[in-house]
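Dear colleague,

As promised, here are the two records you asked about, laid out in our usual form so they can be pasted straight into your sheet.

NAME FIELD: protein one
SEQUENCE, THEN STRUCTURE:
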Amino acid sequence: MKPLPAPRSTTQRTLSSLAMARTAASKAVAMGTSIALSASGR
C-alpha cells in the first residue's frame, strides 16, 4: 500500500472511524436486543 497524501489520509481516517463507530453501534444494538429477548423469554 502506498502512503496517501495528507488530506486524503485525514479523510480516510475520519471515514474509518465513522465506520468503526457505526459497527460498534450496531453491535451494541444487537447485544441489547438479544439481552432483552432473553430477559423477556425467562
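NAME FIELD: protein two
SEQUENCE, THEN STRUCTURE:
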Amino acid sequence: MHYKFSDLVNIKKLQKILENFSSVTDLPVAIADADGNILIGVGYQEICKDFHRKFPASNAMCKKSNTFINRKLHESEVIENQCIIYKCENGLTDMSAPIIIEGKHLATFLMGQFLLEEPDEQLFREQAEKFGFNMTNYLNALKKVPVYPEEKAKKIMNFCTDFAEILTTLGLKNLRDQENNERKKQLDEYKSKMEKLESIGFLAGGIAHDFNNILTAALGNISLIKLKLNREENDKVMEYIDEAEKSLYESKNLTQQLLTFAKGGAPVIKVVCTKELLQESVTFTLRGSNVKCVFNLAEDLLPVEVDKGQISQVIQNIIINANQAMPNGGTVRIDAENVFVNNQEKVLPVKDGQYVRISIKDHGVGIPKEFINKIFDPYFTTKQKGSGLGLATSHSIINKHYGYIAVDSQLGKGTTFHIYLKASKNNYDAKINQRTEPFVASGRILVMDDQANIREMLANTLRSFGFEVESVEEGDEALEVLKQHAFDVAILDLTIPGAKGGKEIIQEVKRINEDIKVIVSSGYNNSPVMSNYKDYGFDNVLAKPFSLEELEEVLKDI
C-alpha cells in the first residue's frame, strides 16, 4: 500500500487545530511532506517575515538553517527518535522532528522561530545596524518572539509529533478499512454475478440441450456431404455448404453460451497449448475482418489446463467485441505471459499458484465508466444487435475454470481484458493434434442415442471411416446387443428420457466386455460425468454438437 501524509490526514482540519495551538503558545508551526513541500504553516513571526527573510543578506542565513535541518532529517541515526534543534545565525531557534508511521518518514513537524532564553538586546541592535533594519520596529518585533527553555520546547515538540502520529495512524486505519471494504464489495459483486448467471442457467440449459441434438445431426450430415463431394468438381456447391456449416457453428457457439449458465456445466479439462489456442481462436474470429491482430506471447509460455472449446469461446467473444468497437479497422494486441500469484492481500479472487495471464487490448471506442460494472451481467448490452450473453458467458466460463477476468477501459481510447488461467504442470504433446492423413479405421462400434437422426448420422460417418456400426435407442437394448456381439467401441448418450442412459449401464457394459472402450456423449453438461468421465468408468467424452475432427480425435485417443 502506497500513501502520503495528505492521504491520511484532513489537512484543513489539522490546519485549524494548529492555528489554535499557535495562538495559545505564540509558536510558529508547520508541517512539510516527505518531499519538503509545506502542507500547513501558521503563526510566522513578524521578525522573520518582515526582516530576516525580507532582506537578501539575512535571508541567506535563514537558508542555512533550512539546509541543516533537511540534511539532519535524512540521517538514519536521528530520524527515528530525536528532535533537531538549530540556532540560526540571525539569533533565533528552529526545531523539527519527523512524523514516523510504521517506520516510514511521512512528514516533518517544524516549530520556530523562538528563543531558548531571554534575548541579548545588544546583539540584535548590532544586527539591525548591520543589515539596515529600522531599529525601533525590529526591537518591537523581537519582543513578540516567545521564549521556551530547551527542555520545555522538546516536550511541546514531542506532544505535537505524538498527536500528529496518532491522527495519521487513525487515518491509515481508515484508509485500509476503506480499501478492504471496497475489495469486499468487489468480491461480493463478483459472487452476485455468478449467482445470477447460475439462476438463468436452469432455463437456458434445457433449451440448449434440445438445440444441440438438432445441430449434431445437421453438422454431421454436412460433414458427410463434404466427404462425398469432390471440391474441384462442385466448387460453387461447396461454397454454399461451407456457408451453411459456418452458420451452424455460429449457432453452436450460441448454444454453448446458453449451456455455460447451466448448473453443473463444468469444463472438460485437458492440457492445451496456450499459443495455439489463442492463434486459432483469433484467426477464426477475424477471418474476413479489417481488424488485424498482433501477438506478443512469451517464448516460455506455459500450457493451460482448460476446456479448449469454452476458453476459445471466451477469446472469440472478446475479439468479436473488439472488432465491433473498431468499425473502420484497427489492431488488436494480445499479450500472454506466465505469472505467479501470491495472493496475501487477496488482490485477485484466485488461489495462489502459477497462472498464464492473457491481455487483449483494442483501440476502439471504449466503455463508459457507468457501464464497467455491468458488462458481465447477463443480457446487458449497448449494441442494437447484441444478445448480451457474450461477456456474461465469458465471466461464467472463467469462474468455472477457477480463473479471473477483469476489464480496464478509457472512453475514446480502447479496452483491455485481462484473463488469468491456471497453468498446467504437465507438458503439452503437439503430436497428438497433428492430422497428417485422412482418418481410416476398422473395428465394430455400438451407437446408443434416443434421437434417430443422430444415430443415422453417426452410423454413416463411422462407416465412412471404415467401422462396422450397429445402432440402438436405449440402454436395455444396448445391453442385449452387447451380450450377443463383440464390440471394440461404444458411444453412449449420457441420458435417455424414460429409459436407461449411459450413466446407468456403464458398469454392466464393462462387466459384459471388459476390453470395450466407451465414450460418453451429451448435449447438456448437467452431470459431473461429463467433466469427470473416467471416475464413472468411461474412457473418453464427446460433447454435442461435435465436428468431424473432434470425433476423429476422440476415436484416435482411445
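A couple of things worth noting about protein two: The radius of gyration is 38 Å. Residues 43 and 410 are 46 Å apart (CA to CA).

Best,
R.
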